[in-house]
Amino acid sequence: MTSVSRLKLPLDRLYREFDWAARLDRDAIQFPLRYPDPADREVVALLTACLAYGRVDLFAPWVDWVLARMDPSPHRFVLGFDPRKDGKRFEGFHYRFNRPRDLAAFCLASERLLLRHGSFRAYFVSGYAPGDPDVGPALERFVRGFLTQDLEAIFPGNRLSRGYRHLFPLPSTGGPCKRLHLFLRWMVRREPPDFGLWPEIPPAKLLIPVDTHVENMSRAIGLTRRKSRNWRMAVEITGRLRLLDPLDPVKYDFPLCHKRMSGDCLDRRHPVVCPPCGLRSVCRHWRGRA
């Protein structure tokens, strides 16, 4: 893998110079950014992250659709959620694995957790131990809270739908949990574009959200050799980035993801796209070339 000394300069430069504001309308973070109240922002961030699978142009209209039915304050809507009355608002929702009852279950489970803990922040922090190597154990407890609620009012026999389970993947199953790590990045990191709403969790404990863009960029510049996008890949990539910035390793996520998403990286040599790229000196496609 590429040496840390060779990676630091180009990656730090990418982070410093990347125009993240110009990419906000192409990123899922645009939705929680609309809500200045931290309580609303938490609820919208978790809902958005749960639905953020597939291309942004595919899931974004559905996130808009859902938020339009949650009144001006999604937090107040969730706190007063009645599945018999309010569940009807989601009739017509159909995005890939998810259906209206999955949204109703999200609201009902969120209502119960918020009434018990006061906020998602307090709920997550209650399961976090400073001695944990990363956020994995706390995230496992956080997710189980949504999967172990009594949702009989929505799922007869409390048999959770495939769609609802898809919203809340467990770290213990070995998947990358990209969407939940994205949610945690938004909540924990102190620097823009993230919100820094959970100061109890050190950014150093975050794991990078590994989607197809981060996976390909990481492999291209030598952050990982793994071929399967899973939890171990997220740990390995974050471990390498932690050598570059021990306090905030996940800061590189947004620019790495959007560099490829924007078409500035094609995961192959290209005579026009590649020459201006600041990562070319550490890219495997240009190894041994001037």
Give a description of the structure.
The protein is mainly α and 290 residues long. The chain has one domain (4-286). It has 14 helices and no strands. The chain has helices spanning 4-17, 30-33, 38-51, 56-68, 74-79, 83-86, 100-117, 120-126, 136-147, 162-167, 178-188, 212-220, 231-244, 253-261. The radius of gyration is 20 Å and the shape is globular.
What's a quick, concise take on this entry?
The protein has helices at residues 4-17, 30-33, 38-51, 56-68, 74-79, 83-86, 100-117, 120-126, 136-147, 162-167, 178-188, 212-220, 231-244, 253-261. By secondary structure, the chain is an all-alpha fold.
Topology:
Layout: H1 4-17, H2 30-33, H3 38-51, H4 56-68, H5 74-79, H6 83-86, H7 100-117, H8 120-126, H9 136-147, H10 162-167, H11 178-188, H12 212-220, H13 231-244, H14 253-261
Helix pairs in contact: 3-11, 8-9, 12-14
Q: Tally the helices.
A: 14
Task: Please identify the structural class as seen in this structure.
Answer: mainly alpha
Largest sheet: none
Overall 3D shape: globular
Portion in strands: under 5%
Uncertain runs: none
Q: Tally the beta strands.
A: 0
Helix content: 40-55%
Termini Cα gap? 19 Å
Integer-rounded radius of gyration: 20 Å
- Summed over residues and divided by their number, the pLDDT gives a mean of 96
Give the domain tally. Answer: 1
Order of helices and strands: HHHHHHHHHHHHHH
